[in-house]
Design goal:
nine-stranded mixed beta sheet; Alkaline Phosphatase, subunit A; about 575 residues; alpha/beta
C-alpha cells in the first residue's frame, strides 16, 4: 500500500499537459464564465439522459409533449447513485448511461423497422437485415452513400453510448456534491410520480408519470423470449405436412400437361389498388390488361392474401405462399429452408411430370434455397444476358427478364411441360428511375434501356418525398403488371396457367400507417376448366379483386391450390 501511495504521488507530480493547464488557467481567470459553462454542461447532460429515457420507439410518438414527462427510471437512478460511495457510483453511473445509450439505439432501430417493415427490431434475428439495408442503399444510391451511411450509423451508436455514459457519470458526481438537496429532490420527484400514477394525471392527454424506458426493456426482453420459444415450436410445425407423403401421381393431377407459372410482383399490395393517389393509374392499367387478356381468350380470377411480411423481406412472403407455413421472420425462414417441407413449386418437381425453372433477376449471389423450392435450374441476375443499366435496386427491367425467360426456357421445344417461378423486381423501392415498355422484338441485350435510365428520376429525389414515392410506386406496379400480362398475351398458349401475386405491401411511407398486409393474387388461364376448379373460392372475375373479395392468410394458399387441382392429402407427422 505505501508503494502504491508513492507511485500515485509521483503521477500527480508529473507536469500536466499544456491544454489542461491552459483550461485550468482560463477557468481561474474567468470564474463566472467557467461556472456558467459548467452548469450548461450539467443541464445538457440532464436533458440528454431524461430525453433518452422518454424516447418513444415509433415515429408518430416523437412529439414535444412526450418529452415533458417525469421518468421513473431517472428517479430510481438518482436514488441509487446517491446511496453509493464514489468509485462504485462512477462504475454504476457509466454502466447505467451506456445502457440508456444502447436502449436509445434500439428505439431508433424500432422506429426504422416499423417505418419500413411494419414491426419492431428483433435483437435475436434482425442484425443480418442491416447488411441487406446497406446493400439496398448501395444499389439505390451508390457505394459511397451506402458506406457513408454504414460508417455514420456505427459512429452514432458509439457516440450515443459514450456520451450517455459520460453524462450519467457527470450527473452522479453532481448529485454527490449536493447530496442533501439531491436526496430531497429525489424524494419529492418520487412522491409526485407515485401521486400522478395513482391519480392518472395527464396533460393534453399524455400521462405525467412515465416508465417508458422500463417498458421498452420489458418489450425487448419479451421479444427475445418469444423468439426463442417460437424457434422450437416452429421446428416441430415445419416437420408436419398435409401433403408431405402424397405419392407423385396424386399431386396436382388436374394440371397435367399445363405450363404453370408462379410470378411474384415486388411490393404489389392492396394499397396499389385502393389508395386514392396510387390506385387510379394502377386500376386503369389492370382493367385495360383484363380487357386485353379477355380478347386473347384468357379468363382470370382474383382475391386477397394477407402477407407474412410488410414493406420488405420479400423472401418471407415467397416462402410463406409456397410452403403453406407462416414464415414471418428470418429464423423461421432458415428453419424451413433447411428442412424438407414440401413447397408448391417442389410439388411439380416431385410429380415427375414437369421440368422446373426459376427466374430470379434479383439474386446476385449463391442461392442454396433453389433445392428447397424444387427448381431444376435457376437463372439469376448474371444468367439472363442483360447488358443494360440497373434501375435503382432492380438489376433489369421486368420486360427484359420475361423476354429472356421466353428465349431461354418457355419458348423452347420441350418433352414435358414447364413449371416456373418468376420474381419481378422493377417495382422494388425506391421506384426511381423506372423502366418503360419497349417493343418486345427490339429488346436485344437491354442496352437500349440506357437512355431510359438516364432520363428517369433520381432515387434520392423520390425517397425524400412521400407523395412522389407514392406516384412512382404506382407507376412501377403498372409497369410490372403490363410486362407480365403482355408476355402472357404474346407468348402464352392454350395450356398456360399463370398465377401471380404480390409478396407484400410497400413501406409505410407509401402504404400509410396502419395499412393492411393484404396483397392481390390472380389465376389466369385459357382453359375454362382451370378456373372452374376454383369456383368455390368466390374470387372476383378479372385481374382486380373486389374490395370485399375473400381474404386468406398467405399460408393457406398452398393447400387450397393443391386441393383444388386434385392433390390427395397424405400427411407426414413429427
Amino acid at each position: 500500500m505505501p508503494a502504491f501511495t508513492r507511485v500515485l504521488a509521483r503521477l500527480r507530480a508529473l507536469p500536466r499537459p499544456r491544454v489542461l493547464a491552459r483550461l485550468r488557467a482560463a477557468r481561474d481567470a474567468h470564474p463566472t464564465a467557467a461556472r456558467a459553462v459548467r452548469w450548461a454542461v450539467h443541464v445538457l447532460a440532464a436533458v440528454l439522459v431524461v430525453g433518452a429515457l422518454l424516447m418513444p420507439n415509433t415515429a408518430p410518438a416523437v412529439r414535444a409533449d412526450r418529452f415533458t414527462r417525469i421518468p421513473a427510471e431517472a428517479i430510481v437512478g438518482a436514488v441509487l447513485l446517491l446511496a453509493l460511495p464514489r468509485r462504485p457510483r462512477i462504475v454504476v453511473a457509466a454502466l447505467y448511461g451506456a445502457g440508456i445509450g444502447v436502449l436509445t439505439v434500439l428505439n431508433l432501430l424500432d422506429i426504422g423497422f416499423t417505418e419500413y417493415l411494419g414491426r419492431g427490431f428483433n435483437v435475436v434475428l434482425d442484425w443480418g437485415l442491416l447488411d441487406d439495408a446497406q446493400s439496398y442503399l448501395k444499389d439505390s444510391m451508390g457505394a459511397t452513400a451506402a458506406d457513408a451511411a454504414a460508417v455514420g450509423a456505427v459512429l452514432l451508436t458509439l457516440l450515443l453510448v459514450t456520451v450517455m455514459a459520460l453524462a450519467t457519470v457527470r450527473l452522479g458526481n453532481l448529485l454527490a456534491r449536493h447530496r442533501v438537496r439531491a436526496t430531497r429532490g429525489a424524494l419529492l420527484a418520487g412522491t409526485v410520480w407515485i401521486t400522478c400514477t395513482a391519480l392518472g394525471v395527464q396533460v393534453a392527454g399524455v400521462p405525467v408519470a412515465s416508465d417508458l424506458a422500463s417498458e421498452a426493456v420489458k418489450a425487448q426482453t419479451r421479444r427475445v423470449v418469444d423468439t426463442l420459444r417460437d424457434e422450437a415450436a416452429f421446428a416441430k410445425e415445419s416437420r408436419e405436412d398435409t401433403f408431405g407423403a402424397t405419392p407423385p401421381d396424386q399431386l396436382v393431377p388436374d394440371l397435367r400437361g399445363k405450363d404453370v407459372v408462379f410470378a411474384f410482383i415486388e411490393s404489389y399490395g392492396r394499397s396499389a389498388l385502393e389508395d386514392p393517389l396510387i390506385a387510379p393509374g394502377v386500376t386503369r392499367t389492370v382493367d385495360a390488361r383484363t380487357a386485353a387478356l379477355t380478347r386473347a381468350g384468357y379468363g382470370a380470377r382474383s382475391g386477397w392474401l394477407t402477407s407474412a411480411t410488410f414493406g420488405g423481406s420479400s423472401w418471407l412472403g415467397h416462402s410463406t405462399a409456397l410452403s403453406g407455413l407462416w414464415i414471418d421472420n428470418q429464423q423461421r425462414y432458415r428453419t424451413v429452408t433447411n428442412g424438407d417441407h414440401l413447397t408448391l413449386t417442389k410439388v411439380f418437381q416431385k410429380s415427375g411430370a414437369w421440368d422446373t425453372v426459376g427466374v430470379m433477376p434479383g439474386v446476385q449471389k449463391a442461392w442454396p434455397e433453389a433445392e428447397w423450392y424444387g427448381l431444376d435450374k435457376v437463372y439469376d441476375a448474371f444468367d439472363l444476358g442483360y447488358r443494360g443499366p440497373k434501375f435503382s435496386w432492380s438489376p433489369m427491367p421486368d420486360q427484359y427478364a420475361l423476354a429472356a425467360y421466353e428465349r431461354l426456357e418457355h419458348g423452347r421445344e420441350r418433352a414435358r411441360p414447364l413449371m416456373s417461378e418468376i420474381i419481378l423486381t422493377s417495382s422494388h423501392q425506391p421506384w426511381a428511375p423506372l423502366p418503360e415498355m419497349v417493343d418486345w422484338d427490339g429488346l436485344g441485350d437491354g442496352s437500349r434501356f440506357d437512355a431510359v435510365a438516364k432520363a428517369g428520376k433520381k432515387s434520392a429525389d423520390v425517397i425524400a418525398d412521400s407523395t412522389e414515392s407514392r406516384r412512382e410506386y404506382g407507376r412501377s406496379i403498372a409497369y410490372s403488371v403490363t410486362s407480365l400480362t403482355e408476355w402472357l398475351e404474346r407468348y402464352g398458349t392454350d395450356d398456360t396457367v399463370l398465377v401471380f401475386l404480390g409478396d407484400h405491401q410497400p413501406i409505410a411511407q407509401v402504404s400509410g400507417d396502419g395499412a393492411s398486409r393484404d396483397v392481390p393474387v390472380t389465376v389466369v388461364a385459357k382453359d375454362p376448366e382451370v378456373l372452374e376448379k376454383i369456383d368455390g373460392w368466390n374470387w372476383t372475375e378479372g385481374l382486380r379483386p373486389a374490395k370485399d373479395a375473400p381474404v386468406w392468410r398467405m399460408d393457406a394458399f398452398r393447400d387450397r391450390f393443391l386441393t383444388a387441382y386434385g392433390s390427395v392429402p397424405h400427411p407426414t407427422r413429427d
